[in-house]
Design goal:
It comes from Roseovarius faecimaris. The protein has 230 residues and is α/β, with parallel strands linked by helices. The chain contains eight helices and nine strands. It has helices spanning 33-36, 39-44, 46-62, 67-78, 93-97, 155-164, 183-189, 216-229, and strands at 3-8, 82-87, 102-104, 107-114, 120-122, 141-145, 167-171, 193-198, 210-213.
Length: 230
């Protein structure tokens, strides 16, 4: 398999202590999605949205990469072909584990964005809606993350990678967020081998030819070992 495209979701970071969208008692459970993850919610109450992402940023800063992140970094380093890592996650655990070719389709907690002029800069640990943009000075600071209703980042790179993939692997995703939820079916139709590594079957598990279920820290390293030894 020369070209491997991997999609990761919140499940790969769960064992690092970062709660998933559906965890009971976590940050997401304390807020309605439309209040903290939509442009409309930000327009209504930017302070609430910043408080939410400040908490997520602090949580992510204290997290550490786990064995699944490290295994994917090893795959990238040792695979004789090309590995493209697409993540729906906004943490930087892949990079801290050693992965270099990472596409954050939903943005990053480490980034700030001016919703007035579009300028981007590194985010401080704590941001406020009234923080001035370094470029235009407008008090229009928002997290550089993709909210529901917005277009994911890096689609100009992701779409060709999916088309050329010999293998598509989905790790720790729910299969409910589009366009990523359609990637397995798309790649399968083009002839790629499709693999799901997850704690339990996703909503689109039927789209995968091969499935392995269990904790990410177990199933991902085991899968990487098989690929590298083939």
């Amino acid at each position: 398999m020369n070209k491997i495209v991997i999609l990761t979701g919140a499940g790969i970071s769960a064992e690092s202590g970062l709660g998933t969208f559906r965890d009971e008692g976590g940050l997401w459970a304390q807020h309605a999605v439309e209040d903290v993850a939509t442009p409309e919610g930000f327009a209504r109450n930017p302070a609430l949205v910043h408080d939410f992402y400040n908490a997520r940023r602090a949580q992510a800063t204290g997290a550490r990469p786990n064995a699944a992140h490290q295994a994917l970094a090893r795959l990238e380093a040792e695979h004789r072909g090309e590995v493209t890592l697409i993540t729906q996650n906004v943490d930087d655990l892949h990079e801290r584990a050693g992965s270099r070719n990472v596409l954050h389709m939903h943005g990053e907690l480490a980034g700030a964005l001016c919703h007035s002029c579009g300028h981007r800069w590194p985010a401080p640990v704590v941001m406020h809606a009234q923080d001035p943009c370094p470029a235009c000075r407008a008090p229009a600071t928002r997290p550089d993350v993709v909210w529901f209703g917005e277009i994911p980042y890096h689609m100009d790179v992701i779409d060709p990678a999916l088309t050329e993939a010999d293998m598509f692997v989905s790790i720790g995703t729910s299969g409910q967020v589009y366009p990523a939820a359609a990637y397995a079916q798309h790649c399968g139709r083009l002839g790629a081998v499709t693999v799901e590594l997850n704690l339990e079957p996703s909503s689109n598990s039927r789209d995968f030819a091969e499935t392995h279920y269990g904790p990410a820290t177990q199933v991902v390293p085991a899968w990487v070992d098989r690929v590298l030894n083939t």
